Amino acid sequence: MVSADFVDETGHSKIGKFFPDQVEELGTGARLIAAKLENDPNAALRYWDKFGTILMRGGAVIDVGANVVSLLKQWAHHRSAYRVLQMSNAPASEILLVCKAEKHAVQDVADLVSTIADNTFIPYEHITVVLNEVGGSFGRIDVKTVIKEAAPEAAVRFITLPRCTSELWSQLEQTYTPIDRVLEMSDREISETFGIDIWSATAGLADLKSWVTSVDKDWKNAGVFK
After folding, report:
1. pLDDT for residue 30 is more than 80
2. If pLDDT is split at 50, 70 and 90, which confidence band does 225 have?
3. Other Cβ atoms closer than 10 A to 185
4. C-alpha 176: how far from its chain's center?
5. Half-sphere exposure in the Cβ direction for 2 (13 Å, CA)
6. Is 26 buried (19+), middle (13-18) or exposed (0-12) by CB count in 10 A?
7. For 196-215, what is the mean pLDDT?
8. DSSP-derived 3-state class of residue 97
C-alpha cells in the first residue's frame, strides 16, 4: 500500500494510520525550501518520479489525496508518463475515483476522467467512479451525464457505496481501526475494545456485517473485484 497524501506529526497519512508499518508514505510533494536549496526548478518533478517507479512495478494499492492530483497530472505531462510506462510494459492501472454528492466534487471527477481517457495521465485498464453516499445521496446530481459531457468516449463504470449506519462506524473512524479487523472480533471483544455496552456491540457488528456483505456483492457484480 502506498499513500500520496498529507502526513501529520505522527508521520502517517490517514490510510497509514489504519495500517501502521504497511504503507509507503510519499507525502504531498517536494518542500519549497528543498527546491530552493538545490536551486533546481525540476526538484518538484523529480520528487514524483518515485510514484512512476511504483507504477512501473505494479502490484500496489495507491491512495492519492485530492490535493495531490493536480501535482501528479503535471508530473505525468512533463515526464511523458503515459508513453514511458507503455514503453516499459508497465501493468495498466485500475483507477477508482471516489466522489461525494457535491457539485464541485462531481466536476473535479469529471475533469479527471477526461484527462485519464485522453491518455495524458497513465495507462489504465478500467475507470470506476465510486458514488460515496457518506454525505448524502446523489438523487439531485446526474453524475453520469456530467462525466459523459466531459469525456464522451470514456468507458466508465459506476458503483454506489451506501452510507454505513452501524453504531460502530464512528468508533472505527476515531480509532483508525480497519473493518476487516473488527469483523474478526467477537461481540465481547468489540465491547471491551471500544468501551461500549454489549447491546451496541452486538447490533453494531450485525449491521456492519450486513453492510459489508451487500457492498461486496454489488462491487463483485460490477466487476470491480474478482
Report:
1. no
2. low
3. 17
4. 16
5. 17
6. buried
7. 96
8. strand
